[in-house]
């Protein structure tokens, strides 16, 4: 499959996923997020995401929710007067598990997720990542706060890798600081 055809297919699937889940937003909950990303080799970037809550549970043993995130990432790096950019489209299911409630009503959550991503340029920050198809792994900590806990700040570790499907597979690592608004 050509790179243009596979990119077009991935973008089409991303748009379908967004439209299907946004149709359900009245009953389950939606959110928009913006992340500042800092990664290896002096990479910085921004991630814009739409999240749709798929499931929620709040019982005596645990409080958690599962969301689907569709995102667009733009990564930049400038080294020795050479500028590199990369565009990434990703879809990730995310588990948020409440670890504690604060006296002011805020809540602290742990976050885990593994999704798929399309990375436009296979060579970035001096690494050949092997394929356009990558897996987006994440682990993080988040805090819901504000009026009705509609605001969320999160600190995450993100890892992109093709999981050994194709060689080479060095992976790319990032830290992100995120602000999310539920609506």
UniProtKB/TrEMBL annotation:
It is a multi-pass membrane protein. One of its GO terms (molecular function) is hydrolase activity. Belongs to the PagL family. InterPro entries: Lipid-A_deacylase-rel (IPR018550). Keywords: Cell outer membrane, Hydrolase, Membrane, Signal. It is found in: Cell outer membrane. Residues 1-22 form the signal peptide. Its EC number is 3.1.1.77. Has lipid A 3-O-deacylase activity. Hydrolyzes the ester bond at the 3 position of lipid A, a bioactive component of lipopolysaccharide (LPS), thereby releasing the primary fatty acyl moiety. It catalyses: a 3-(acyloxy)acyl derivative of bacterial toxin + H2O = a 3-hydroxyacyl derivative of bacterial toxin + a fatty acid + H(+). It comes from Pseudoalteromonas obscura. This is Lipid A deacylase. It is an enzyme of class 3 (hydrolase). The keyword Magnesium does not apply. Pfam families: PagL. Homodimer.
């Amino acid at each position: 499959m050509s790179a243009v055809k596979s990119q077009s297919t991935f973008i089409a699937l991303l748009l379908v996923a967004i439209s299907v889940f946004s149709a359900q937003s009245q009953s389950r909950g939606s959110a928009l997020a913006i992340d500042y990303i800092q990664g290896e080799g002096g990479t910085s970037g921004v991630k814009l995401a739409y999240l749709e809550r798929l499931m929620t549970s709040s019982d005596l043993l645990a409080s958690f929710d599962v969301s689907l995130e569709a995102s667009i990432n733009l990564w930049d790096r400038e080294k020795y007067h050479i500028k590199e950019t990369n565009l990434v489209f990703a879809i990730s299911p995310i588990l948020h598990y409440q670890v504690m409630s604060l006296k002011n009503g805020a809540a602290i959550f742990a976050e885990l997720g593994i999704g798929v991503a399309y990375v436009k340029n296979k060579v970035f920050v001096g690494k050949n990542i092997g394929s356009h198809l990558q897996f987006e792994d994440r682990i993080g900590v988040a805090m819901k706060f504000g009026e009705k806990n509609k605001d969320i700040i999160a600190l995450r570790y993100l890892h992109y890798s093709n999981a050994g499907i194709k060689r080479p597979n060095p992976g790319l690592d990032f830290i992100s600081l995120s602000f999310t608004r539920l609506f």
